[in-house]
Amino acid sequence: MTDVHAITADAEVFTCNAYLVSGDRPVLIDAGAMPGAVDIIDNIVDDLEAVYLTHQHTDHVAELDSILDKFDAELYAYSDHPRQDSTLEDTDTVEIGDEPFEVVYTPGHASDHVAFVGNTRVFSGDVVVYNDGAFDDGSFGRTDMTGQSRERLITSLQRLLERLPQTVNELYAGHGDVYYGSPGDDTIDSVKTIIERALMRAERRKLKYPNN
To answer: Are 112 and 55 in contact (CB under 8 A)?
Structure first.
């Protein structure tokens, strides 16, 4: 199985989690907003084949140009971007590292949001996270700003659950910690349980950050 490196783990600025997936075809999930990310990538892999965007909020793309300038990588995104090579569509299959992943369209937090679902891993962007400042053990991206929709996010979480293989046991979210579940251990929450909990909390339709 290919390795996943959280290249923005030591960031001192607000950024998403950007994940470098090594293997025969090294790719990056989101670019993040941490200056110097390009050097971290360069220290881990000799080349970068592609960058896949979960969505185009600033904390996910601020360092994109510097990364594309350094590496001859193809850019994949759901919505238009000036440097885009290919468009992501719902149900597409893409290769991340050495494994196939299904593209699942998951709007709500952003209108162009997608998640990448593999047999053992999910790169969920901001549609669902393990922990953040609002909830632990299952949370979701905020939906109270212009262009966002709680109803669409709820539908997206339901769609993600419908297309989630039973074998998935790792959740790589755009913010917070990586979550490692265990499908065969009833004492540990599965990734499915984490997403179900996020859905339940989203369905309450209360503001995620009521004091903002």
So the answer is: yes
